[in-house]
Amino acid sequence: FVHPTAAHHPMRLDMSGLIGRGKVVKKRADLTMMELIGALRYGREVQMDASLENLAVHRMSLQVEVSTRLALSFSCYAFVLLGAALGVKIHRKESTVGLALILILVLAFFSFIALADSLVSRPGLRPDLIVWIPFLVAETIGFALIHRAH
């Protein structure tokens, strides 16, 4: 039995459709974290023809994307802290209250992300910081519940 390799099966690819198309521009959601940070650091190189107002909106959209990714990554700590605090405090018959609180928190996270995305065109309102509000509120509630339980 012979295993086929690429040397045994040459393949011709027609790249003429891709060559000459110009620059490929990724959407901000498709950028890696390092590409986002690089675009923020060298933002003027990304949009040389943009006016200062458009450049500020573009930079804020990149900052919102970075903040959203970080806030969602850290949100697991908020959920664990709230879950631990509610597990200590709530008895079995009150577990629906804890479940409702977690569902409200998840909805709040995504609502604040949607709010930040809608405010990208107004950089003065700092929508990149808005996505951190539910995380900070959840952490504060979790710490307060644990402190109260002891």
Can you give me a brief rundown of this structure?
This protein is mostly helical. The chain is 64% helix and 0% strand.
Task: Detail the poorly predicted runs.
Answer: none
Element order, helices and strands? Answer: HHHHHH
How many individual helices? Answer: 6
Biggest sheet architecture: none
**Subunit organisation of the chains:** single chain
Helix content: 55-70%
Structural class: mainly alpha
Mean pLDDT, as a whole number?
A: 81
- Strand tally is 0
Distance separating the two termini: 69 Å
> Compute the gyration radius: what is it?
23 Å
Beta-strand fraction estimate:
under 5%
Global morphology: flat
Could you describe the 3D structure shown?
This protein is an all-alpha fold and 150 residues long. It is 64% helix and 0% strand. The chain contains 6 helices and no strands. It has helices spanning 33-41, 43-46, 52-89, 95-118, 127-130, 133-149. α4 (95-118) runs antiparallel to α6 (133-149). It is flat and about 70 Å long.
